[in-house]
Amino acid sequence: MNQIPTADTTTGASPANYPPRHPRRRIITLAVFAGLALVLVTGSIAFALGQALAGRSTGNSAAAPAAQLASTTGIPDATQNYGAQPAKYTVENGVKVFHFTAERVMWEVARGLPRVEAWTLDGTVPGPTIRVTAGDHVRILITNHLPEPTAIHWHGLDIPYTQDGVPGLGQQPIAVGATYTYDFTIPVDNFGTYFYHSHYDALKQESMGLYGAFIVDPKPGTVYAAQQPRYDREYLQMVSELGGYFVINGKSFPDTQPMVVTHGQNILIRLINIGELIHPMHLHGHVFSIVAEDGQPLAQPIRKNTISIAPGEDYDLLFHAWAAPGSIYPFHCHILAHTMGNGPYGMGGLITLVEYTK
User: Nearest 5°: CA angle at 262, between 256 and 265?
Assistant: First the structure.
């Protein structure tokens, strides 16, 4: 399974097997065994925490506690299969207005696996992809239907602290049943790949799916538009953990959506790590250029085939689709424990495919 691995514990030799010792040595021996006992207890706690985080056993069967299963009663199944769909908006007096609902759904990570509880915007993991242009005036309304308060942080945007989404600093948490309005103008030089996520009880809410992409295109006619690389297609890849599984855009392989390309095209990957672990992402059969880091274009792109992305980072990767029509190449995490699952040949988790049209 594509679960977060847990640590094993080991035991030491029994003190009954040792001959009598000098009192001082006995004291040292007792201290050693006390330390060993502490290690064993700590290891047991770590194992329990790992199992709680995974919510599953190391086999194929679910191991969620009965209380956890009972807590999902009444939560509806998601009505959409895939997240990160383009966010809809209206224009009111020149302002782009978005309205989202924070809500719980039961999300299908991969077909054949038990659904997991997800905390979302508009019922998908990731939430809708917000796409605007640098210089836009944006107004975003969040209605909270979660069972606790929430708040949304706009990660990477240069906006006033009162709109930054941190409870206790620029705002009060969004109460259950309430609607909160974020209102800001994006600076003209603040273009690139960014994202949003919960900043209230974030370890819980973000890890359960309350996040999405925020793409800012450069304003046409500005010097910044010339810094945007030319590409034919682009794909979003948000890596994370959800319900004990490793996911890309809320899905585990083989249910991750492929990146479909045509021979001769230039492809842009917007890679975002919204999880809690570092992932070295490797592209088979191709060399990509890192053209931007955290939304900032690089004057000198870096050519690689593997990039380690830490939590909270994002990269723009550009590669040329050189291979023959019909070719298929994986794009995956190179920590192999993150790529195991119920898919073909035991593959799962953080894998997606680059598929060439025929």
Answer: 110
Tokens of 55: 């919510």
Buried b (16+ CB within 10 A) or exposed e, 108-123: bbbeebeebbbbbbbb
The CATH code of the domain at 229-356 is: 2.60.40.420
With residues binned 3-state (H G I as helix, E B as strand, rest as coil), the percentages for the chain, rounded to 5, are: 15, 40, 45
pLDDT tens series, the chain, 358 aa = 544 444 333 333 333 333 333 444 343 333 433 443 443 333 333 333 333 333 332 222 223 333 344 478 999 999 999 999 999 999 999 999 999 999 999 999 999 999 999 999 999 999 999 999 999 999 999 999 999 999 999 999 999 999 999 999 999 999 999 999 999 999 999 999 999 999 999 999 999 999 999 999 999 999 999 999 999 999 999 999 999 999 999 999 999 999 999 999 999 999 999 999 999 999 999 999 999 999 999 999 999 999 999 999 999 999 999 999 999 999 999 999 999 987 889 999 999 999 999 9
Task: State both tokens at 178.
Answer: 């309430």
Element (H or E) spanning 104, and its range?
A: strand 95-107
Do the domains 229-356 and 71-226 match in fold?
Answer: yes
If one looks up domain 71-226 in CATH, what number appears? 2.60.40.420
Alpha-carbon distances, residue 288 vs 248, 279, 309, 318, 353 (angstroms):
19, 17, 15, 5, 15
pTM, 2 dp: 0.82
R_g over Cα of the chain: 24
Between CA 269 and CA 286 the distance in angstroms is 13
For the chain, the structural domain boundaries read 1-63, 71-226, 229-356
